[in-house]
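Duplicate of #3305? Posting structure anyway:
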């Protein structure tokens, strides 16, 4: 046999070995790719610079359900509470009402970092708590257990953390303590009170959905004052007369503004239809009688919402059940209750004249004091 010749059976065997080796290589490459994607999906994002980030300050009792721990604190005192937390620090805390929101914020962050890897214009979650530092070990362990990207903590050892909100450049503060939320709003910081849910909700893990009431939330309470003091007929006349005059801003206007700013970053990449942020206006106003002023105000501000629902006094709960937002902001407790009864995570914004006429006791779980 010459040097250039080869036995056919040997050639076939050689080809088979090459093909078999190629197949093994493909299998190995596929396994490596999946492993890399798995590592990439669990890798925490680089912490953004505070001056560029959208900072969401969340209390520990918002992020986690600490009803049992709070009862120990109330009934047995601080020392027993701290001892309990240290004895259970390897036991993850249960998820609280802000947990789905935080996960959705992190989903948006991943998308933003894919499109703008060098930008720090993403959400930065700060855990804001008046817990003592030793309790922080259980909080850290719980955050790591759930794979959350929360690197900034503020533990004030029994003192109110409100004074630190501006130092953290906070865009939104969420707490289960209505007094602290009221203090934050008085300081000009967007804030809302959250309440423990009776059951864990299955919400979108691909899109952040935020729903807002209009008056005394996005807008000031000027129109609501007219309703309360003079009735609906006078309100309709007032809104028609001042249709071209923008409403003054409310406490949550700034948060809608930053959401819109981030949405535009996706629009700029031609991803309007695949944007991971969706905003909703859910208002008791009537469209024909008083809706134009609302829409013109948003236009004047250079803002928009993806969907606007004018309910003309109808209950908000059924609409919110269809939207399934990660959070719904409203200034009226009966709307918050109605939303919660339909399985929506609703937060109370204690702002405006509605608080004078609505002195309802904040919602809590059956046995909780959070």
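Output from current build:
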């Amino acid at each position: 046999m010459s040097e250039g010749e080869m036995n056919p059976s040997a050639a076939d065997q050689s080809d088979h070995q090459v093909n078999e080796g190629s197949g093994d290589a493909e299998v190995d490459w596929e396994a490596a790719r999946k492993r890399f994607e798995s590592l990439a999906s669990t890798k925490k994002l680089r912490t953004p610079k505070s001056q560029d980030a959208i900072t969401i300050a969340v209390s520990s009792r918002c992020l986690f359900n600490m009803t049992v721990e709070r009862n120990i604190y109330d009934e047995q005192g601080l020392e027993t509470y701290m001892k309990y937390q240290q004895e259970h620090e390897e036991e993850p805390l249960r998820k609280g009402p802000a947990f789905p929101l935080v996960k959705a914020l992190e989903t948006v962050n991943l998308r933003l970092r894919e499109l703008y890897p060098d930008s720090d214009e993403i959400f930065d979650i700060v855990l804001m708590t008046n817990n003592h530092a030793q309790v922080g070990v259980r909080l850290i362990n719980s955050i790591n257990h759930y794979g959350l990207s929360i690197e900034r903590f503020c533990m004030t050892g029994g003192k109110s953390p409100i004074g630190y909100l501006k130092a953290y450049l906070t865009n939104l503060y969420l707490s289960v303590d209505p007094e602290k939320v009221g203090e934050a709003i008085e300081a000009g910081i967007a804030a809302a009170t959250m309440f423990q849910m009776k059951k864990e909700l299955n919400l979108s893990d691909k899109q952040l959905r935020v729903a807002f009431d209009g008056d005394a939330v996005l807008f000031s309470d000027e129109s609501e004052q007219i309703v309360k003091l003079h009735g609906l007929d006078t309100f309709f006349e007032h809104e028609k007369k001042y249709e071209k005059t923008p409403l003054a801003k409310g406490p949550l206007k700034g948060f809608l503004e930053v959401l819109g700013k981030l949405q535009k970053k996706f629009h700029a990449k031609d991803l309007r239809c695949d944007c991971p942020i969706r905003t909703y206006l859910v208002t008791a106003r009537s469209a024909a009688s008083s809706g134009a002023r609302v829409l013109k105000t948003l236009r004047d501000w250079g803002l928009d919402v993806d969907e606007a629902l004018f309910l003309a006094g109808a209950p908000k709960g059924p609409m919110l059940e269809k939207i399934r937002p990660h959070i719904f902001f409203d200034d009226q407790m009966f709307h918050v209750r109605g939303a919660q009864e339909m399985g929506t995570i609703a937060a109370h914004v204690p702002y405006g004249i509605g608080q004078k006429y609505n002195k309802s006791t904040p919602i809590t779980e059956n046995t909780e004091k959070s």
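Confirmed duplicate; merging threads. Residues 8-42 form the longest helix (35 residues). The longest strand covers residues 123-129.
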